[in-house]
């Protein structure tokens, strides 16, 4: 079939060129995740500069800690003067320990009473998810004598109104229905000595710019309404979810792959994927369906932040004024909660082959020392090929070699002697599949069999993928996390993070 | 020339040779195929007609509804063609980004059903209910007696109807070395390109927008996925162009050639220039590009991306003409609001209604610029104080008034936000 080469961030490419991973992790049996804080710093700088240089309105960036709870990234957020968004009590405890003040923390998601109590005690901003949660905040404050300071809250809106086209949004489990907001305003007014309404929050998964603009317009409308009834609302929070999760080096390769897959589906041929899987493609009336969705999961290169926010903020709020301008005039702070977009390309995950066996049609089944949870492949299965390093390349040692002239490599179109290899995890579950698509290996010496000890590197795993489902269900070795920094132009330092 | 039916005006468009003094590239002959001269204003007139002309009897006899997914030109043409035959037309789309385009469709009594695009990053149902093409397909499949889906992205009558354009070009030009076409559905470049490749051994160059650079009617390479006609290998080269390129090219064609083309035609022309710029051309070569459609529906788009084109500039002294030195020299700040001041709040009416300084009046900055550039509307007032959000705009207005009318008008230092902090909290 076809190689779909992953996009690799220039800093990681430099690291791979200068580091002998085979020898560095020769003795290591655990799943390994390498995290690159400098890449997150670059993203923060980009976000800040984009807003500083292009828009007059106030903005505030909350790092969504759930994207990767590692202290490494939390520390970067702290050191770079951005805010942080936590979605559990333990996340809150962690960021407090690292040094965040309550005023720089926002609490989101489903909340237990103890999470709410801690958030109130630390004066965090609370994104309130329901009327019931608002009532619980009020009663926790009363019950624990916490009424002497005001708790700042945002009301999370579930079903923003859309004036763009004839659109119906999908239901969301989160947030308060627009029609229930008045009840919230009454409750807050009745408890105005202990609750302060700061603004609104809409965090939905639709990444379309037009819809994000509509969400912001809904929140501005609510700000105007609440100011008219006497609230000093100053914040709107548009959440995160700005771009797709998979980054390919050249979109054509991915397109070619999907074309071939579609043709195979139409002609009733085997997909070559494990168990003849076609991802989410289906055939209806001889038309291939689902291509659009598969297509839009993948992006070429990096996400263009400026273009995205330019289009959103220059959308007209009404016929006289743009969103950016009305935010400025009303002195509303626009908050963003990027998680993925601050950690885009900030991590790679390394697996080693622990067992190989021959299978049908000259293919191989390789089991790795990681399982599907370690790279969240059931949620975020890689659609791009991982990097493959043969253990026999140890003396040749670097990434340059792998990708140029060296004997063993993943190729664009496999030669006839290429080996097809399926990658599986280390549990005894049939469903522990790392990738449904096979990868192909070959070399010039006809030594193209995968071997125990060969290395598979999954790219762009910094956000969500390396943590979100991480588990060792059969008491396998737990994941290890390493912080990777370039200490000068020629040297990279790899330090194990012990406290995750 | 008397014609009996407007469809007779579709096609047979002229070719304009672009004066070489305009591009100054030696040995390069550029020809514009003037598809904007089609009766409804674009090359999509050919496609629309091609897709329904052989089915008109069936559609009319069975009272079918014609459906399509289109961002503008195709639906506009289909809508007119259906309307004149008393056929209902519905447009299922998620791509209409220009209000002007939408309004034209509304004028034509087009039924527009808009959907959001599919989610771009989250796993979701493959049969996404928001995919308009899927919905249109389902409608037709579920009730083929009622609906006729023209399927511009798969309908072979799309490229086939464009072959006629290819034939027109070879009738007019003996030699066509390159053919440049902006890719929308990919149908035009394929239809015309196949003829030119075969008859003139022409190199076919596709033009797409840069990722994240939306050019109306066109697509980025990523987006070309949506179409069934796009075959990368068909093109000798695929070049990207930016919004800036599109507007620059469009302005050249409008101002230097008298062609009222839209941004897509501009993008294609500019891509020709970018492609050959700094290349030494030894022997004369002929290039044809398509001037796809007219500019009028895209005025809002152009305003958004090039607002200065619409500002009152030229030799007229205006607020936006003031330079930084002049602003500093002529503006006069004031820390406090005085009772004797006429306070003019330059913010939007929404902000003014919500909170304002007592006894102030509201004239938005844009409105005021237009008014005071004509005359001093405050001539009966000695002390005028301009207020805006943070004093940037009010400072400019103060400088303008003082310079133009030799006055001593002030702006409120720190703007409304600082005033609110001090006095309204």
Question: What is this structure's SSE topology?
Answer:
The complex is a heterodimer of chains A (500) and B (425).
Chain A: H1 10-18, H2 21-24, E1 32-35, H3 37-54, E2 58-64, H4 71-79, E3 83-86, H5 89-98, E4 105-107, H6 113-121, E5 125-128, H7 131-143, E6 151-156, H8 181-190, E7 195-201, H9 209-228, E8 235-237, E9 246-248, H10 251-266, E10 282-284, E11 287-289, H11 291-295, E12 298-300, H12 305-313, E13 316-318, E14 321-322, H13 323-329, E15 333-336, H14 340-343, E16 347-358, E17 363-368, H15 377-380, E18 387-389, H16 399-403, E19 409-410, E20 419-424, E21 439-442, E22 455-458, E23 480-486, E24 492-497
Parallel strand pairs in A: 1-23, 2-3, 2-15, 3-4, 4-5, 5-6, 6-7, 7-8, 8-15, 9-12, 17-20
Antiparallel strand pairs in A: 1-16, 10-11, 13-14, 16-17, 16-22, 18-22, 19-21, 20-21, 23-24
Chain B: E1 15-17, H1 20-23, E2 28-34, H2 44-52, H3 56-61, E3 65-68, H4 73-84, E4 89-93, H5 99-107, E5 111-114, H6 132-142, E6 147-149, H7 157-172, E7 178-182, H8 187-200, E8 203-209, E9 237-241, H9 243-257, H10 263-276, E10 285-291, H11 299-305, H12 324-330, E11 333-334, E12 342-345, H13 349-354, E13 361-362, H14 365-374, E14 384-387, H15 392-405, E15 410-412, H16 415-424
Parallel strand pairs in B: 2-10, 3-4, 3-6, 4-5, 7-8, 7-10, 8-9, 11-15, 12-13, 12-14, 14-15
Antiparallel strand pairs in B: 1-2
Largest sheet of chain A: 10 strands, mixed
| Total DSSP E strands of chain A | 24
How does the major sheet of chain B shape up?
6 strands, mixed
The coarse silhouette of chain B is: globular
Distance separating the two termini of chain B: 74 Å
Mean pLDDT of chain A: 88
CATH class of the largest domain in chain B: Alpha Beta
Number of helices of chain B: 16
Number of strands of chain B: 15
The fold-level CATH name of the largest domain in chain B is: Rossmann fold
Please state roughly what percent of the residues of chain B sit in beta strands, choosing from under 5%, 5-15%, 15-25%, 25-35%, 35-45% or over 45%: 15-25%
* CATH architecture label name of the largest domain in chain B: 3-Layer(aba) Sandwich
The tally of structural domains of chain A comes to: 3
Q: How many helical stretches of chain A? A: 16
User: Using CB atoms under 8 Å apart, which protein chain pair has the greatest interface?
Assistant: A-B, 59 and 48 residues
């Amino acid at each position: 079939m076809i190689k779909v080469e992953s996009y690799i961030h220039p800093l990681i490419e430099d690291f791979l060129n200068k580091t002998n991973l085979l020898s560095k992790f020769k003795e290591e049996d655990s799943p390994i995740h390498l995290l690159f804080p400098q890449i997150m710093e670059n993203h923060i700088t980009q976000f800040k500069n984009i807003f500083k240089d292009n828009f007059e309105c106030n903005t505030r960036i909350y790092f969504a800690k759930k994207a990767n709870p590692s202290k490494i990234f939390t520390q970067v957020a702290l050191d770079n003067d951005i805010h942080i968004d936590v979605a559990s009590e333990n996340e809150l405890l962690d960021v407090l320990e690292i040094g965040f003040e309550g005023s720089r923390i926002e609490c989101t998601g489903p909340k237990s009473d103890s999470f709410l109590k801690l958030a109130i005690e630390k004066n965090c901003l609370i994104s309130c998810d329901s009327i019931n949660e608002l009532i619980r905040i009020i009663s926790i404050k009363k019950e624990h004598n916490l009424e002497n300071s005001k708790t700042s809250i945002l009301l999370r809106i579930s079903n923003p109104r859309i004036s763009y086209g004839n659109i119906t949004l999908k239901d969301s489990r989160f947030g308060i229905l627009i029609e229930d907001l008045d009840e919230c305003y009454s409750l807050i007014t009745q408890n105005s000595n202990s609750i302060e309404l700061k603004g609104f929050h809409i965090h939905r998964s639709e990444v379309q710019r037009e819809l994000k603009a509509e969400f912001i317009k809904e929140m501005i409308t609510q700000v105007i309404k609440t100011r008219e009834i006497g609230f000093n609302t100053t914040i709107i929070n548009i959440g995160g979810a700005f771009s797709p999760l998979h980054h390919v080096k050249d979109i054509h390769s991915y397109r070619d792959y999907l074309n071939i897959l579609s043709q195979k589906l139409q002609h009733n041929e085997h997909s070559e994927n494990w168990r003849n899987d076609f991802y989410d493609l289906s055939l209806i009336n001889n038309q291939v369906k689902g291509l659009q969705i598969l297509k839009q999961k993948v992006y070429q290169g990096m996400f263009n932040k400026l273009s995205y926010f330019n289009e959103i903020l220059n959308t007209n709020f009404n016929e006289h004024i743009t969103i950016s301008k009305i935010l400025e005039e009303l002195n509303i702070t626009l908050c963003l909660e990027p998680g993925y977009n601050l950690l885009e390309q900030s991590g790679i995950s390394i697996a080693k082959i622990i067992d190989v066996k021959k299978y049908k049609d000259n293919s191989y089944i390789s089991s790795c020392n990681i399982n599907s949870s370690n790279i969240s492949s059931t949620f975020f299965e890689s659609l791009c090929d991982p990097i493959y390093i043969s253990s026999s390349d140890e003396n040749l040692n670097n990434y340059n070699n792998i990708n140029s002239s060296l004997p063993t490599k993943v190729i664009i179109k496999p030669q006839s002697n290429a080996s097809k290899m399926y990658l599986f995890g280390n549990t005894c579950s049939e469903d522990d599949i790392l990738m449904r698509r096979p990868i192909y290996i070959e070399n010039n010496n006809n030594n193209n069999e995968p071997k125990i000890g060969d290395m598979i590197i999954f790219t762009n795993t910094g956000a969500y993928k390396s943590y979100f489902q991480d588990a060792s269900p059969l008491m396998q070795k737990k994941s290890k996390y390493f912080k990777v920094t370039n200490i000068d132009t020629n040297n990279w330092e790899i330090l194990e993070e012990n406290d995750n | 020339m008397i014609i009996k039916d407007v469809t007779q005006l579709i096609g047979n468009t002229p070719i304009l040779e672009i004066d070489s003094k305009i591009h100054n590239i030696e040995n390069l002959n550029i020809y514009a195929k003037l598809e904007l001269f089609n009766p409804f204003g674009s090359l999509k007139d050919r496609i629309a007609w091609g897709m329904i002309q052989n089915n008109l009897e069936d559609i009319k006899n069975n009272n079918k509804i014609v459906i399509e997914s289109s961002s503008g030109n195709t639906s506009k043409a289909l809508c007119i063609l259906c309307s004149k035959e008393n056929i209902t037309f519905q447009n299922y789309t998620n791509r209409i980004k220009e209000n002007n385009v939408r309004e034209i469709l509304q004028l034509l009594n087009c039924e527009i059903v808009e959907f959001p695009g599919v989610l771009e990053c989250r796993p979701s149902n493959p049969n996404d209910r928001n995919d308009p093409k899927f919905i249109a397909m389902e409608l037709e499949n579920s009730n083929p007696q009622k609906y006729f889906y023209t399927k511009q992205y798969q309908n072979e009558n799309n490229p086939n109807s464009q072959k006629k354009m290819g034939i027109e070009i070879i009738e007019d030009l003996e030699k066509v070395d390159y053919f440049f076409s902006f890719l929308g559905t990919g149908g035009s470049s394929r239809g015309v390109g196949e003829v030119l490749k075969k008859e003139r051994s022409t190199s076919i160059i596709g033009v797409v927008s840069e990722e994240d650079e939306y050019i109306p009617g066109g697509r980025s390479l990523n987006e070309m996925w949506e179409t069934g006609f796009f075959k990368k290998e068909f093109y000798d080269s695929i070049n990207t162009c930016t919004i800036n390129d599109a507007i620059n090219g469009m302005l050249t064609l409008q101002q230097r050639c008298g062609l009222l083309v839209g941004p897509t035609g501009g993008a294609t022309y500019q891509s020709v220039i970018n492609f050959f710029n700094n290349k030494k051309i030894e022997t004369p070569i002929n290039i044809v590009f398509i001037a796809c459609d007219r500019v009028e529906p895209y005025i809002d788009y152009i305003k958004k991306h090039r607002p200065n084109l619409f500002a009152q500039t030229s030799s007229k002294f205006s607020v936006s003409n003031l330079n930084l030195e002049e602003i500093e020299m002529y503006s006069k700040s004031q820390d406090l609001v005085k009772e004797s001041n006429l306070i003019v709040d330059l913010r939007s009416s929404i902000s003014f209604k919500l909170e304002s300084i007592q006894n102030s009046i509201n004239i938005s900055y844009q409105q005021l610029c237009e008014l005071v550039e004509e005359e001093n509307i405050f001539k009966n007032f000695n002390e005028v104080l301009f207020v805006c959000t943070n004093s940037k705009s009010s400072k400019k207005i103060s400088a303008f008034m003082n310079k133009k009318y030799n006055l001593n008008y002030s702006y409120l230092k720190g703007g409304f936000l600082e005033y609110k902090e001090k006095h309204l909290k």
